């Protein structure tokens, strides 16, 4: 539990569902509530006082569900199902599909680009955002069976999409590097910048908020890489194979900051 507690403004605004609360404040408050019993009690009192309709609805739902939950006795799973459920969940299906899709897409786009070309590649220019969009789509309402459960958890939204993108690419890129070493296809070249910038966004998000960090990183990419490359029609150094060590260093720095400041999202003062 943090020594700092949520302000009355945040607790009351969260209980009422005020629209003027920014996303970073909501994420920080929800993360803080996970480990602070005092603030949870204050929130419960605020809901009762500020949103009696919500409190009444919650009581009605629990009164209806209580007898059904007590009476429901799940059937014992079969042995093979029990073993499978110990390693997989329904929510893993989109994750596995996204890993396979990103790997296949990387290989196809790298082959389609053609070897030895020095002209600017649109794939490389928009590489940092393409996997993020794919991950967001794979966990959308229509594809993710656990969407509603996930959407109600603390720090859902952009922060969770970036974390899932990093998890997917952390699995895909080593496999692509090994495959590229064996086949000569450098498919990891356009995925490594995405992983490095995703880690950088998460690292900055612990200081200025994830939304502001994402805007800052996107603006930096557009100013430093996108605009000069489109102006000269030549691939920038950081987008070539020779620039992979640069992205590796940026990735290491970003991961180091995220690990060192892993509790930053539970500090309310960092998001005011």
Automatic annotation (TrEMBL):
Instruction: Reply yes or no: does the keyword Cytoplasm apply.
Output: no
Q: Which residues cross the membrane?
A: 87-109, 121-140, 161-181, 187-207, 214-232, 244-264
Please, which domain of life does this record's source organism belong to?
A: Bacteria
Keyword list, A-Z = Membrane, Transmembrane, Transmembrane helix
Q: Could you tell me what this protein is called?
A: Membrane protein
The organism's taxonomy opens as: Bacteria, Bacillati, Actinomycetota, Actinomycetes, Kitasatosporales
